[in-house]
Amino acid sequence: MVTAKDDTKTKNLPWVEKYRPSTLDDLISHEDIIKTITRFINEEQLPHLLFYGPPGTGKTTTILACARKLYPKGQFNSMVMELNASDDRGIGVVRGQILNFASTRTIFNKGYKLIILDEADAMTNDAQNALRRIIEKYTDNVRFCMICNYLGKIIPALQSRCTRFRFGPLDPKQIQPRLEYVIEQEKVKVTEGGKKALMELGSGDMRKVLNILQGTATAFPEVNEDNVYTCVGHPTPTDMSNVINWLLNSDFTTAYNMILELQITKGLALPDIIQEVHSYIHRIELPPEVLIELLIKMAEIEERLTHGTMERIQLSALVGAFYLARSKIKLPEKE
To answer: How far apart (Å, rounded) are the C-alpha atoms in residues 68 and 22?
Structure first.
């Protein structure tokens, strides 16, 4: 199990960085990927790599652990170049900084260099095309590892030159031991309901789980279900039960006013409510044609919200969509 470094510098670090695994053995998931990459390294046959998948699933941590295994501490800075979304990675950087690093050899260090391009899906097509030729030309001297969330944003020419690994969302059973360890190390008071809420909101994202845990532990004396949801401004299961009840049973005006009051009182965003409503209605027995129409209308509302429309108007549309759905299945109306 990973231990936090006993250095005063780590005292004020975010827990995500403080407890980030530093070796391949410390990683908690994707065992098949770890075994494959370890074999590549041991046999000195490391190809160009492309890691893709949702955030917080260990992509960056894995390649940094690989780099530490490949290079002793003294060689790390001279043999590894890491660029992420905060750096300019247009065609100028590819032809300048990356090309210079890839084309030069170090006098005292043997083997190949490693270039890590984090969030490579943010690179322009021109930069990706320029990178294609560098990868081909300097394979003897350098290995590339590209990391992205969306594989479709990487041009096929780069995909074909790399060995691809997909990092899926982490299973709660994989997150649980690391979460328990951080709770123990930081001496945080956490209830079982709080742990369950962290897992629900994390959705397989280890980084998100630890960030929410740290935020809640800092803001409240106890990490319980209500405090976790309050800290992130997300509707609680109780709130959502009330919202669904109003949408399915109350008249238009009552449902609209009650949901609006809940939003104002608890500072809830309509997109978060729609996201939770979506998961709830799949558990309700509705005629297929009604469910399909309801889902399409909710998708349109969410799209309009992303374009910056007024939440109150879209809330009216949401209540109206459910009111029309009820009229088609003739649900009883309560005053």
So the answer is: 8
